Amino acid sequence: MIADMTTRKSLRWAPKFNAISDDLPRGLWLSKMVLDKTGLTMEGSVVSKNQNEINKVGLFLAALKQNEGFMKGFSSLEVNSIQRGKNNAVEVTDFTVKAKLK
């Protein structure tokens, strides 16, 4: 139940959300975050003039993995999917990331 996850004293969500915000690279944004009994799923997109969108997703994950406050309570943080496409002639890469609860 979501109430159980959000009221656990061992998991503080505000610092986790602050870490996500602080570690977002330029050109990358999140469009959806879902918290369920397995963990936190983040969906987002990234654009880049240099066509290094996948690298930016990797940098975002690496920064979160190095953040002890964010990773506390999570067993892993992985990319679930990544897909390139065009939106009005602009290359956009959509991705899904999953942080699994311990």
What does this 3D model show about the protein?
It is a single chain. The protein has 102 residues and is α+β, with helices and mostly antiparallel strands. The chain has a single domain, classed as STM4215-like, CATH 3.30.2000. The chain has 4 helices and 4 strands; from the N terminus they run ααββααββ. It has a 4-stranded antiparallel β-sheet, covered by helices on one side. β1 (28-36) and β2 form a beta hairpin. The mean pLDDT is 88.
Quick gist of this model?
The chain has 102 residues and is α+β, with helices and mostly antiparallel strands.
In percent, how helical is the residue content? 25-40%
Total strand count, please? 4
Class from secondary-structure proportions: alpha+beta
Question: What profile does the largest beta sheet have?
Answer: 4 strands, antiparallel
Give the end-to-end Cα distance, rounded to a whole number of Å. Answer: 15 Å
Secondary-structure element sequence?
A: HHEEHHEE
Regions with little confidence, pLDDT below 50 for 5+ residues? none
Shape estimate? elongated
Mean pLDDT: 88
CATH class value: Alpha Beta
What's the gyration radius in Å?
A: 14 Å
Spatial ordering of strands, largest sheet: 1-2-4-3
- The helix tally amounts to 4
CATH topology: STM4215-like
Integer count of domains:
1
